[in-house]
Amino acid sequence: WCPRNSVCINAIACRCHPGFSSWSGEIITSPADSCDDINECEPPLAVSCGKFADCQNVDGSHYCTCSPGYGLVSGATTFRNESENTCQDVDECSSRQHPCHNSTACINTVGSYRCRCRRGWTPLPGFRDNQNTTVCEEMSFPTWTPPPGIQSQRLSGFFERVQDLRRRFTPASAQDTVQDLIQSVDELLKAPGDLETLALPDRHHTVTHLLSGLEEVLRTLAKAVPGGSFTYQSPEGTELSLVIQEQGHGNVTLGQSHARMLLDWAVAAGAAGSGPTVAGILSNPNMQKLLANASLELDPERQAELEETHESPLYGVQWRLLSAVNSVFLSNTNTTKLDPKVTFAFSHPPEKPGTRQELICAFWKGADDGGGHWATTGCWTLGSWNNSTTCQCSHLSSFAVLMAHYDVQEDPMLDVITYVGLSLSLLCLLLAALTFLLCRAIQNTSTSLHLQLSLCLFLAHLLFLTAMDRTEITVLCAVIAGALHYLYLASFTWMLLAGLHLFLTARNLTVVSYSSVSRFMKKLMFPVGYGVPAMIVAISAHKHDHHRTSIVNLAFFLMTLWILKSRLSLLNSDVSTLQNTRMLTFKATAQLFILGCTWCLGILQVGPAAHVMAYFFTIINSLQGVSIFLVYCLLSQQVREQYGKWLKRVRKTKADSETFTLSSRTMSDASRPFMV
């Protein structure tokens, strides 16, 4: 009565065979019980076969086999447990244990193999490379036709040459074909012929078509080029650098004299490799003619920064191409958001950006309608040294270094205010200087300071109005810039000395004699007033910060007011003749303008109120000469008395002249003979 897979022990009991068990245990006493197989490959037993091996359960037992792609060193097919495991990788390629098609090459991998297209071959439609079932066909030259809608005999001749290269192409001749193609492009760009007469949209459409077509053709043909790398320089200076690797890792650097590129090899290969991985850069220095007058689109963040810097909206960007146009192509065609980014070093002639100019890294961005323009989004300029600019980009395209000149929308009213204000200041400064020189009653240390300040401001304003735009001759421009730098530095230095003198005078108001202050200022003012600006201009090519002098003068002014507040009541009538409080207040306030304190308004020209502050800054500081003449000449009683004397003298001289003229006429008439 014992069930299957058991043996009889006695009349009332049976025992299951090894590898079997029943629900009641090893001994069966009920005819309804059965002996079932124990699965040693599953918990709780879970026999371990070791690495690269699998457990196989059978009725009443188990055995171990090596995983697919592995085999025992002894050549046996099964073993019992982990201690007998000698599984190792089986090289299916060398042992011919693979079904790879004869158009592919077998590549062994750990535990498996892949079938990769031979060099110069590509997968058939519907197949993928590097699969066990890959089937390939011989590589062909990619289809490249003229851009639709462009009528040009020169361009048609170029594409006839391309079609001839396509017909004669074989994978073995890939290197020669690449060189012939580059030379054909050089011939087209060297003498573009009727391409230069095309409308701008058509010309830029042609550029986009040429760049994208070249990238696709070179990406394809490079896979058939023998060797791990290839460089070529055409007679016209175009450079090609290629790196081709079956398996690569880490960073790779490629390029020649026009450009160098550093990228992570994982970026070049992409998510899934298809044959050998290609990375290449083509540098063409002959595309200026076709790229002329293309627009430049700035990154929105960069444009906002520039508008904040120049405190005015940009209404145009002019550019000049400095470097070769460098086209980058990889096996990986998904290059819109790269991580890590790609670094470039572009060579170009030495250039020093001028006012509202900068060196920028730009790329050629194709438009949906086939056209194109320069853009900067996703590219950053890391720095420029001598004749090289380093850039970093998060995408790939055709790149170049441009010298950009930003056209800022200036307020014409500010120009009008500047010219009118400075013209009035010139007249007032001239009158003030003549007054300080000729009016002996007011000549003292303070007058000497204001005379020198008036002369420096007069010359600086005159040069600014007459020669500011003389930039045609480089040497003349440099001389004018140096002179303006010196004169305005000297003006601010004299303002500083005037502020210092005002402070020292106020501090010594309780003392009737100012001899110590006068001696100190006379020794100090000329060496400092003219020597310090000369030293700064001589040793520094950087822009001097005039606001610092203004801030120091403002500090002197505030301290002077504080001293005056506590000591005005103690003023000796011999020290101060100002009895009119309103006049004193007005003159004190006017010192803000005379000492250049209002130049601090330049610091406030930021944010939403920048435009308003620009008006305040321009109006107040352009009339600084008017303030000097008003306070130290027109509001000075001594000067007004002297003006009265001069006016009386002029009137007397004029009257005497008229009397003399009348007397002369009378005598002349009397001397004539009487005629009847």
From TrEMBL:
Domain GAIN-B positions: 229-409
TM annotation in the entry: 416-437, 449-467, 473-504, 524-541, 547-564, 584-606, 612-635
GO molecular function: calcium ion binding; G protein-coupled receptor activity
Superkingdom of source: Eukaryota
Species per Swiss-Prot/TrEMBL record: Equus asinus (Donkey)
Protein keywords: Calcium, Cell adhesion, Cell membrane, Disulfide bond, EGF-like domain, Glycoprotein, Membrane, Repeat, Signal, Transmembrane, Transmembrane helix
Protein name: Adhesion G protein-coupled receptor E2
Compartments in which it is found: Cell membrane
Residues annotated as domain EGF-like: 37-76, 89-128
Domain G-protein coupled receptors family 2 profile, first and last residues per copy: 414-636
Primary gene name: LOC106827561
A Gene Ontology cellular-component term: plasma membrane
Membrane topology note: Multi-pass membrane protein
A single BP term in Gene Ontology: cell adhesion
Main location: membrane
